[in-house]
Amino acid sequence: MSDCLTAFHVALDHHHAGRLADAEAGYRGIVGENPDHVEALHHLGVLLHQRRQHANAAAFLDRALVLSPHYAACWSNRGLVAAALGDAEFAVACHRRALIVDPWFANARNNLGVALHALGRFGEAIDELRLLIAQQPDFIDAYTNLGASLAKLKRHEEALGACREALARDPANAGAHFGEGNALRELGRLEDALRSLQQAVELAPGHFESHVNLGTTLGLGRFAQAEARYRHALTLRDDPQIHTCVGAAIGAQGRFHEEEAHYRRALTLDLNHADAQHNLALLHLRRGEFREGWALYETRWRASKYAPLVIPGVPEWGGEPLAGRTLLLVGEQGHGDQLQFVRYASMLERMGATVDAWVQANIAELVGSVRGVRRAIADGTTLEYDFWTPMMSVPYRLADIVQGVPAEIPYLSVSAARVGAWPARVRGLAGARRKVGVVWAGSPTFANDRFRSMPLAALDALVEVSDIAWFSLQKGPARTQLTHAALKPHDLTDHIQDFADTAALIEQLDLVIAVDTSVAHLAGALGKPVWLLLPANYDWRWMLDRDDSPWYPTMRLFKQTTLGDWEPVVRRVKEALARTV
Questions:
Q1: Looking at residues 349-361, what average pLDDT do you find?
Q2: CATH of residue 272
Q3: How far is CA 329 from CA 268, 311, 403, 494, in A?
Q4: Which end of the chain has fewer CB within 10 Å, C or N?
Q5: Which element (helix H / strand E) includes 328?
């Protein structure tokens, strides 16, 4: 027995020193001579778990537990192996068994919190971790794990507090800096988040997720830095999501010709990677490769950016014959997307369908004017329909029927009642001058708004073009800029209640100059001349290497060549205005 004990301690010393091969040989030698040696079975299981041989580890730990069913540490380690094997439910059971044996076993309670978190039982995880902290206030991992579970419940202030409790006890704790940075990002404190995540990276340069989340935070506007961080993460793990992030960061800088290889690599690693498929779809559409693009675009409902649409009780249209059938055309994404894609209603009508469109209330009147739309609805029952379809899935379903882009404009119209007093209002202010509407900003909640919008002052040079009466089409917070810029368009937007009013004003104008907002789509659908001012990372629908748009024949595109630099764009617009006097 003493020889066996000595051999065990020798193997244990090897294990603690990191000499795993020697330790494994020692443990196996003991188990070979004494198959019931619980400690050797237990530690051999732990060692195999460390070597990621989890199934083998489970077998040795199970043997130890049969011999010693009240061995708390062995139960806890069996829980870790169960988690590694993807059996979170059994992991929870194992850790609970450990705590029955020893209610003050801190590692077991911490591991229980982690296992409950993995099952999405965040409230229970929080309860266990708070109990652990009450029992042992200096158990650092309990605070970082508590922060992670609080974050899942969007309790970001509490998560931040938990991570800062950890940092108060251990200022060099990389995991706590990581959790702090994530919480700060969710709270909109981006500069503080970047500092915390950078600290996490410096303290644990091999921590993949820290590099990724730092890249994601930088990706809210600092695209080149985000790209560099994602590329570094790929040196740690060849991950399909991060290849997709590299491609997206490249595209966000306007380097569209360099994206594809990264999405292809992601799809080599994961054939069905939804974000890579979605981004590749947009790249095909940007190039005008519509058949490939629309087919891949159907993966958008699995991509992280979108929540699936569901119309309960009505089957989704999958291309079945439509003659004599009723179809609900469901708007998706933003106002501009819906104004752009409602054009397909006329084709569906020609196929024999009776088409209703389900859209937001503030565009319903205009959508109701589209040929092929029987009525536009904003709410109410949908059970009366034979089929429904997302608006932006129609091009895919019609790929064999419609070649390219249908662009019969105008396809929207404004009722006489809406036109009302608008001609008199505009004529009284403009006289015989050219009438030009302007929109310089979109919704600040849009992901790329920092780059697609501009300050009104960026258009100051246009004041120098004579014989123009300017009219503001701007709504929202950017309207306050009217008092500070040299260009002072007439502001009649107090009379605008919805898009139909905006359309009535646009109908009185000779030209609309806009950044990439729904107003540009509206003007294009009305058949008005519209000049679209685009950032270098412009949206897919404005296509590569074009200054016109197949979607809107009356549209002209003015694209940045350097992201964030509007001066050359405005100069070209000024020259074009001067030439068309």
A1: 94
A2: 1.25.40.10
A3: 35, 11, 20, 32
A4: N
A5: strand 326-330
Domain contains 178: no
- How far is Cα 186 from Cα 181, in angstroms, rounded to an integer? 9
Question: Is the same domain home to 571 and 525?
Answer: yes
Domains in the chain: how many in total? 3
Helices 38-50, 20-33: inter-axial angle, 10-degree rounding: 150
Query: Longest C-alpha distance within the chain, in Å?
Result: 109
What CATH number is given to the structural domain containing 571? Answer: 3.40.50.2000
Mean pLDDT of 44-52: 93
Q: Do residues 442 and 372 share a domain?
A: no
Domain-located, residue 8: no
Same domain, 290 and 355: no
DSSP states along 172-218 = T-HHHHHHHHHHHHHTT-HHHHHHHHHHHHHH-TT-HHHHHHHHHHH
Task: Give the pLDDT of residue 581.
Answer: 59
Q: Which tens digits make up the pLDDT trace of 564-574?
A: 999 999 999 99
The C-alpha angle 281, 282, 283, rounded to 5 degrees, equals 90
Sequence letter at residue 153: L
Is residue 361 located within the same domain as residue 275? no
Does residue 212 share a domain with residue 339? no
Residue 229's domain spans which residues?
205-307
The Cα–Cα gap between 54 and 63 comes to 14
Indicate whether 426 and 454 sit together in one domain.
Answer: yes
Q: How far apart are CA 547 and CA 200, in angstroms?
A: 45
Distances (CA, A) of 87 to 45, 299, 362, 372: 17, 29, 49, 54
Domain boundary among 307, 337, 354: 307
Residue type, 556: R
Q: Same domain, yes or no, for 297 and 334?
A: no
Q: What is the pLDDT of residues 89-146, one digit of tens each?
A: 999 999 999 999 999 999 999 999 999 999 999 999 999 999 999 999 999 999 999 9
Instruction: Tell me what the mean pLDDT of segment 249-272 comes to.
Output: 95
* 1: pLDDT strictly greater than 60: no
Distance separating alpha carbons of residues 25 and 21, to the nearest angstrom? 6
Is 11 inside any structural domain? no
146, 133 Cβ separation under 8 angstroms: yes
Position 39 scores a pLDDT of 92
Query: Which residues are bridge partners to 373 per DSSP?
Result: 355
Non-local (6+) Cβ contacts of 213 within 8 A are 178, 181, 182, 185, 197
pLDDT one-digit tens code per residue, 190-208 = 999 999 999 999 999 999 9
Higher-confidence position of 403 and 35: 35
Q: Is residue 226 part of a domain?
A: yes
Residues 392 and 424 occupy one common structural domain: no
Q: Compute the distance between CA of residue 151 and CA of residue 209 in angstroms, rounded to an integer.
A: 16
